[in-house]
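Take a look at the protein record below and flag anything odd:
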Amino acid sequence: MNLNRIAKFEKVSFEQFKKDWIACFLAETTDLDMEEVEKSIRKIYDNIKLPERSTTKSAGHDIFSPCDYYIEAHSSILIPTGINCSLKDNLVLLIFPRSGLGVKNRFVPSNLVGVIDADYIDSQNQGHIFMKMVNEGDKDVLLKQGQAFCQGIIVQYFVADDDEVTSKRDGGFGSTDKI
């Protein structure tokens, strides 16, 4: 089978992951033993699994949880995945819920479909993909380290004939928002 290879998943640097992990989970915590914190984060980082397709005809690349999370019913969590994706121009990575978790547990991306543009990799955060997941179900969800919790599909997109955009991205998550 000859597939077009048009993207590459990689880990962000350990320093970027550590910075983002602390911002997500430890920002308001004081009196931390930073040496122990760094060891814990390093262990999580070392176990990050890059996205992969589960079968030869799968369109979606499964995105895996970097560690165990417990998400109560009717709550949400922002997950720093530790990965980024280099895409060729005119491609986008669309991130959808995994059918099993979505159908059985209503565990879905908060914006329903995540959009990772080709220039997101150029962001100040190394294109670090975060997923805000919502447990809309009535049962708590235990997401295990290495468990696929959403899936990314690479899609070609097109622009209108009169498209004249010249601006460039200068930031990470939400950086194309116009104020």
